Each structure stands twice: as structure tokens, then as C-alpha cells.
Amino acid sequence: MSHAPRASPVTTSEAPPARRFEYAPAPESRAVVNIRPSYGLFIDGEFVEPTDGSLFETVNPATEEVLAEVSAAGPGDVDRAVVAATRAQREVWGSMPGKERAKYLFRVARIMQERARELAVLETLDNGKPIRESRDVDVPLAAAHFFYYAGWADKLAYAGLGPAPRPLGVAGQVVPWNFPLLMAAWKLAPALAAGNTCVLKPAETTPLSALLLAEILQQAELPPGVVNILTGAGDTGAALVAHPGVAKVAFTGSTEVGKSIQRSLAGSGKHLTLELGGKAANVVFEDAPLSQAIEGIVNGIFFNQGHVCCAGSRLLVQESVAEQVVEGLKSRLQTLRLGDPLDKNTDLGAINSPQQLEKIRELANSGEDEGAERWSPTCALPDRGYWFPPTVFTGVAPAHRIAREEIFGPVLSVLTFRTPEEAVAKANNTTYGLSAGVWTEKGSRILWMAQQLRAGVVWANTFNRFDPTSPFGGYRESGFGREGGRHGLAAYLDV
Ligand code: NAP
Ligand code: MG
Q1: 70, 246, 254: residue to mutate for ligand 1 pocket, most atoms within 8 A of CB
Q2: What is the pLDDT of residues 245-266, one digit of tens each?
Q3: What angle, 0 to 180 degrees and rounded to 10, lies between the N-to-C axes of helices 98-114 and 139-152?
Q4: Which ligand is nearest to the Cα of residue 123, counting in written order?
Q5: How far apart are CA 476 and CA 484, in angstroms?
Q6: Total-model pTM
Q7: Rounded distance between C-alpha atoms, residue 6 and residue 319, angstroms
Q8: Using a 6 Å cutoff on CB, does residue 241 contact ligand 1?
Q9: Which of 56, 200, 246, 257 has the most ligand 1 atoms within 8 A of CB, as the residue to mutate?
Q10: Domains of the chain, each with CATH number or no CATH
Q11: Residues 346, 301: contact at Cβ < 8 Å?
């Protein structure tokens, strides 16, 4: 998987890179996907009208164009979906032999691959992310999760979780807007492999790829009720996690909402996993291959406009090479292309919503107010839509808000250190603990750092690598539970 941005001439600056190449526009066709004007809720294998819900619009954040009208599920709709999922779990899915469940999951994965272009274009339209990322990362990885967990469905007794692990029942799953299809796949694939049925709530601003996935589930002839998809806002999510028929809640989103869900479920006996925010340190030692590290820094924070829970949003660079790294980084950023997400040459797409744009602006302004130095390449932002230029802050102190709070945007805070011990202390100086990166030539230092860093995932000489076989999850305010790999099954089994 490679998603390092390519060179481009869109931005201008005081110190232009030595060679520049002109790119002709290379837009992906939006005609490959058929967006309906209006969508119902996916309950018991059918698209149905909401009974006590309402309608809302979803827009393309790159153009502000309304893409479709979507239903917001009310409490009565949540109840219908949970009832359908309960019946499907008891009567069909929970008692089906694992090797039969596997066939459905393989089929879903294959159809996702067949319809990959549609899924990628739809994801880019609804989310604002570059087509190169949805095409090369989100969609193939989502299919890979279904393939991987299909393989586990008939081998649960060999997963090291006891000889006869049992499904929990109905899983209520709530996902965010930054990787809408991929997060749905992370949730659905292990739950289904383990014999649970699901009610999934996508984020309000990005419901469309989950609704296309519902069509794919119909095409795969998944038995009715095994997966139900309820679009809506936070209220729908809250009603879902509170429903007494839900045995397991899986939530990915902000730490704030995660905490409120944990409070509301206390004493209910429901199983819970939380995948929350992060403020990852990307640590560059002086002996690292610096140009490779610079690519990794760019990928770490500017991939998906920085809307990444495990983004390398704090660069910790050894003082002796700090100037060189920051200079190299700035000259690299001058070549990033920001603009039409459907253009195959685009590196940075749109910010997902005006609310998120406002949050990024507010935190970036606080960086300036608190005394850090702000830098962006000169970069023309489109007139319509929600945009924020790639931004680097130097002179950042550990107490600054931009060093502590998750910005969830294309904004990097640069801090320096002198010794490995200081690097560890600064990297761990956060309430989060989701991911970290280490750049060094020394193998022993990589292992030592990995032991010292309090983060669920530590990447060495790379960043933002994902694979369905590898567990992912956090410590502290980044949540608990693991998704991916054999560990991801544990969250959906009574062992
Ligand atoms: P969010 O506001 O917490 O929303 C996440 C999901 O929860 C959305 O579907 C949201 O619906 C729903 N929701 C809101 N209030 C709820 C409530 N009271 N009860 C139940 N559900 C509720 O998070 P976000 O701002 O959309 O997403 C960004 C956050 O997700 C970041 O902090 C990021 O780090 C985190 N994230 C973590 C991971 C991980 O694996 N650790 C991965 C991706 C993202 P609406 O969208 O309709 O409001
Ligand atoms: Mg949208």
C-alpha cells in the first residue's frame, strides 16, 4: 500500500523545488456510480421508510453540492432493526455452520472488489478524500477485511479463545466519517465471522458508502436481518447503544462521545470496545534516512487531510537535524496538490464538514496565539467547498494546545528533543495512546522505543500502514479493545 503524495506544481513558494512537472487534469468519472435521490433505512434485508425518523441531506464537501437525501432513524426504527437482528441471530446466523457464514463473507468481499470503482467514487464524493486514497487504500482494505475474517469463520475454536467460543448476539456499531466504508468493514467483518448480527450506524456526513454496501449485501443474498444499516445523527447512535436488545457495542469516534457511551453503559452488562482519538508522536532520530523520514512525516499527517485517528500529528525531531528536516519538509510540501478530490493527481482533498473546518481553524489560530510559528505553502484554495492548506507549526511547546489536543486536520506540530529518553518522555506526554512512529537506522533503538512508547501501534521507518491481520487499538483515552487480526475476534465472542 503506498499513499505517499506525488510531486506537483500547484503550489508556489519562495524556494521552488528544482524540477516541476505540469499535470493535465485526470478526473475519475462520477458517472460510474448511480446515486439515488433519496435513501431509506436498511432493515431486515430491505430499504424501508423511517417510521418515526426524518430526512436529511448529505453533501459533497468539495463542492457543497447536495448528493442525496437520507433517512434519520428514530427510536422506533432502531427498535425494528434490533428486533430484526435478534431474530436473524437466533434463527439463522448464529446457528449456521462457520463454513457457510464464510461463504457469504467471501462473496461480499468479491462483490466489493468487482464494484470497487463505484465504491471509491462514492466515498470520494461524500467524504472529500482524494480518489487515489479511496481507490488504493479505503476500498481494497475494506474488501481485505471481509476476506480475512471469512477465513476465520470456521476456525473460531482454534483462535486461542477457548475450545467453543460463542457469539454475543446483536452488535450495535457506530462509526465516524473519516473512513466510512473501511470503518464499517472493520466492524462488520469480525462480528459476522463470529456469528453475531449487526446494526450499524454510519456518520451523518458520510452515509452513502454504507448504503451502497447494503446493496452489495443484498446482491450477496445475505439473509435478511443479519446486517441492518441505520443512517442518522448522534441521536440515532445514542438510541442504538442504549437499546436493551444490543449485547455488544463497538464505537469508533471521539474520546468525548466514547466516554459518554462508557458512562451510559456502566452496569448494563453490555460488552464494549472503544476506538477513540489520538495525538501520535512521529519520532525522527538524527541517524534516520532523512528523505525517507520526510516522506513518512508527510504521509503521517497529510494522508486523508489529517482526518486520521492515528495521524502523526506531533513530529519529534532530534535537535541536531531539526533544521534540515523542517526545511526538507517545507520544500516537499510545496509540491503537494490540493484540489478536486476526483482528480487522480490530487494529494489533499476537502475537509469533511464546515464544523470540522471550524475546529481546525480554531486550533490553528490558538497555535499562533500561544506563540508557535505557523507556515503553509502558498496554495490556492478552491472557492466552493471546505478547504484547509497543509500547515506546519514550529517552535511548539509541549503545553501548547496544538501539542496536546487532537486537531484532526492537515496540521503538524514540530517539537525537538536531544536524547532518546527525552524523546520517550515527550512522546508519552499525552492523554492518548493510539500510535507512534520511530525513524532510525538502529534496530536496537527501534525495539527499545517500541517498549517505552505507550501506544497501541508503533511503526518503525514507516507510518500509517494497515493490514487486516494486524490488531489495531489504543491505550488510555484512545480507548480499549483491538480491531483486526485474531485479537479482533475476541471482542465479538463469549470466551
Ligand atoms: P464523533 O462525533 O464521536 O462521532 C462518531 C460517531 O458517533 C458518529 O457516527 C456520530 O454520529 C456518533 N455519535 C455522536 N454522538 C453520539 C452519542 N451520544 N451516542 C452514540 N453515537 C454518537 O466523532 P467524529 O468527530 O465523527 O470522528 C472523529 C473522531 O473519531 C476522532 O476523534 C478520531 O480520532 C476518532 N477515530 C478513531 C479511530 C480509531 O480507530 N481509534 C478511527 C477513526 C476515527 P454523527 O456523525 O451523526 O454525529
Ligand atoms: Mg457528505
Answers
A1: 254
A2: 999 999 999 999 999 999 999 9
A3: 170
A4: 2
A5: 19
A6: 0.94
A7: 28
A8: yes
A9: 257
A10: 30-275+474-494 (3.40.605.10), 281-460 (3.40.309.10)
A11: no
